[in-house]
Design a protein that fits this description.
heterotrimer; A mainly alpha; B alpha/beta; C mainly alpha; A: mainly alpha; MetI-like fold; 0% strand; B: alpha/beta; six-stranded mixed sheet; 21 helices; 24% strand; ATP hydrolysis activity (chain B); ATP-binding (chain B); cell inner membrane (chain B); cell membrane (chain B); membrane (chain B)
Chain lengths: 285, 559, 312
Amino acid sequence: MSAPATTRFSPSAGLSRWLGSHLSLSIGAGILVFFVLIAIFAPLVAPYDPVLQMADVRLTGPSLAHPLGTDNFGRDMLSRLIYGTRIDLQIALIGVIFPFIIGTVLGTVAGFFGGIVDAIFMRIIDIILAFPFLVLMLAIIAILGPGLTSFYIAMALVGWVSYARLVRAQILVLKNSDYAIAAVSLGFSRTRIMFRHLLPNAIAGSLVFVMSDAVLVLLNGAAISYLGLGVQPPTAEWGIMVAEGQPFVTTAWWITLFPGLAIVVLAFGFSLLGDALGDLLGVHE
Amino acid sequence: MSEPVLSIRDLVVRYHGVTPARTLIDKVSLDVGKGEILGLVGESGSGKSLLCRSVMGLLPSRALKIDAGSVMLDGRDLTAIDSAEMLHVRGRKIGMIFQNPSSHLDPVMKIGEQVAEGIRFHEGATREWARSEAIRILEQVGFPDPERQYDSYPHEFSGGMRQRAMIAAALSCRPEILIADEPTTALDVTIQAQILDLLMNLRDRLGLSVILITHDLGVVAQTCDRIAVMRDGQLVEHGEKRALLADPQHEYTRMLIGSHPSLPATGEDEEPVRAAIEKKKTGALLEVDDLHVEFDIGGSIFTGGRKTFKAVKGVSLQVMPGETIGIVGESGSGKSTLARAILGLNRIASGHVAFDGVDLAQQPAKALARLRRETAMVFQDPLNALNPRYTVGDTLREVLKHNGTPSAEIPGRIRELLDLVHLDHEFAGRKPRSMSGGQCQRAGIARALAVNPRLIIADECVAALDVTIQKQIVDLFAELKERMNLTLLFIAHDLAIVRNLCERMVVMYHGEIVEEGPTDLVFARPKQAYTADLLAAVPDIDPDRPLLAPRAARPPDAA
Amino acid sequence: MHRYKFVFYRPLQLLPVLFGISVITFILVRMIPGDPARVLLGTRATPTAIARIREQYGLDEPLWRQYFYFLENLAHGEMGKSTLYKIDVLKLVMTRIEPTLMLVLVSVILSILIAVPLSTIAARRQGRIADHAVRIVSTMGIGFPPFWLALMLIIFFSVRLDLFPVSGYGRDPLDKLWHLALPSLTIALSLSAVLTRSLRGAMVQALQSDVATAARARGMPEGIVFWRHVLPNSLVPTINLLAINIGWLIGGTVVVESVFAIPGMGQLLIRAIFSRDYMVVQGVAMVFACATVLINFMADVITVTLDPRIKL
């Protein structure tokens, strides 16, 4: 314990692992920054208006004028893809951030106070988890009416559960750690122990989970739009673009291919970033 | 020494994950004789485990390589043979057991199967024959009902029995050499004595050669024929046990022997101790009266009501100001629970705890406020006792601020505290992860001192440290006790340390105090058979004071 | 055998969850703005039908009384009538269970058949090219949107190769399996990505574990170490992950059934949402929730069987 730890090696430790997590980090961050820049500068980089219907170029394949082709209304797919970035990034961001905040606070409180508060939260979580995630989301959206706002509300109502469970489990472990007991024995206040000593150490796991959750939220948001219950036409969003291309899938494959690929690449970016963060913070799901 | 069965010559192991490669085993040469027990001693990081893993061809990382030297067994160089041949060396020629049987036994496989596995693979035995062989071996290592226990899983056994199962698995193919890597470190002393007894017994019966890796010189002195001392990957000294212990040549060996806690403290005569006990009739700082602590251990309306585990059962104890009391007991004896209950960290089922005359049960708010302000705790695992995100300075600053130290004085106080525990001032800016165990423990002690405590409870605070560091921390406590007139409750399973530090001691067993008295008196004339067993099981560094393994667990008479 | 006692009392422990499921589905439908009778029956309902449903569900009474009427009806297997299909919701849902169940089963089996070999290859060649390939593919696979993947599979297997049907559900068992090939492959590809990541991680850890070291020290060859020690110890966390993901899996079937026009519960749910057939939405959600609870219970039984340490 006192000498440098020379006897214990994890076989994957060392240079290749360091490189591995930094490679994931740079590729993941690179993908994300790329999409964020595209979203911000969409009007500058998009060659056309995403909803402009050009009657003379319906269903044309990729060409110089329209690198990703056009759809059945004669809209430029590249421009729609670029503007879609804005919506899909927003879906991932807002769909993650409210559940993260709500879940972290509730999980911390439940884990820290235990007893009846904890029991009640845990039962609520059990019940919500009993519903397949997408089914409950769809049911809530069915009531609130289709649209992105409904999606965000449904996310906030349902999505916090995983964060709460994660943070609660961490808090339960940390609560019994020696440094937490030391803090109690030194007479620090409960709020101080909870927010200064426990939460900062418990949150690492959630931060990593945010990244894999962003993937799920992105896929679900796109799926809900694909089903016609999220973003409404003619707004450009990747999920709905796939749906719009579906009738022409055998003849005009480019309408469906590219939006789906965009989702895959963005999701890959989030996953890589999550893996790298997990390695760097020493957290494993 | 008899003819060697295993010869290690100029072995060099390097870690190639960094440039330049780091040398971890540096030209070690060593022989193991037939039927002898060789003690391989060293502190963590000395390379003693790595050396044995190199012999087995089980280096824990691909970045580790044997770069030079040889390991000769039966005229073959183990470093040169291919992995298929090595399979027949492991298990058949050399068996190995490990420190933590709980993690090394497969939790989802019956223990009998784990013993039989080797027999089936190495000897191509049928399932039935392997089973009967395994049962025979289980019996040999001390399983009372091997027929039935063959079909049990590891989690159904105690730590001592799990280690026996590991030994059975390692010996299943009758190897000539057994490598035992800290086989008793995780066990209670009485269990340790039994396992060591078993190892010696097996050596005599099977003519086994044993390499016993340990950090405990006492264990070596009691069991080994020869000793090899390692440090930083080098073999600093080796030789016949008695000669080496009596006349160590190397300075490091002398330091190791000097740090070993079982030596009677030199130059300290017993008068001051007596005096300390005399002066105590002033009024207790801490009074514990008939304390009971219980824990809920699950149970529900479906499984038959609430179940509780009684961790502390009617403990009474008085601690006078300035006194140092040792609380000893094996794992599960309730000593840590008692400490936490005293500090108001565990709910008390019944009984009283009064600190400086204020009763914790009757005036909880006032008593807790007093306890929080005037007591402090030092923990077993020094790394986990510090908030990983705080620097040592942050940790101390938080405590000082909380106790109302004016901000202007805080930096000065932090330096003072670091001086007290002999840490450089630059440690104020370091986080626990960049510090060694001993340094973390010093920081933990500084945090305890920051409240200017009247009572410090140290819970197994040296158990996780190397012996030389242990000694430094114990010395630090002795020094602080002297300088600051501290009252100290020192919880330990290591009796020798308690003997050196504490004036009075309390022996706990299954939640009760079974014996109590001045330390030297308890050591000289234990009243309880249990205490006597406990004392006898401590491996002494003097080979002529043999340890006695209790034949069976002997529960104490009613306290 | 006492470890399996929970099989008997766990259903009792699940009662609160089932109760909660009924509360949530009840609240969901009552949250819809407007006259609940018209919400439940649709806009073209006759006055007599409205009067009848008002009485049956006590719609003029306080909410908590209404909940008890709802529970009472539920106890009689009465989940209301579909406005779109004009039949009892329970009967309607019953006819839709089989395709969904088949889809889930085939998908799970397929994904295990994909995930176990891939993770085994990756874990045993840790750090080599095969491992990197598996890791990259599985990391990417998690991000494949099922609805899009389904279309891509259709283009390739149905349109280009003409191997599998584009949509629908067959009549006899073989025909059904043939129709389910692409839908279940869609789900299995996504699910196996998740499983592979987890199983590979568990295997890598188990390969480096003390248990494996001890087995090697007894002279066991890598093959025995892997099959007898590493695999059994890696399965439990993966089964648990599968159980956790069962909700996600069902979500996947909802989307995939819509793409392939499979007459299952998912497709029924989507149609019901669009036609404001709330009784059906409520019924499907409830059946899905109960199915999830049941599957998790089964996962518990499997876990207890695989790991002797676990007590429930």
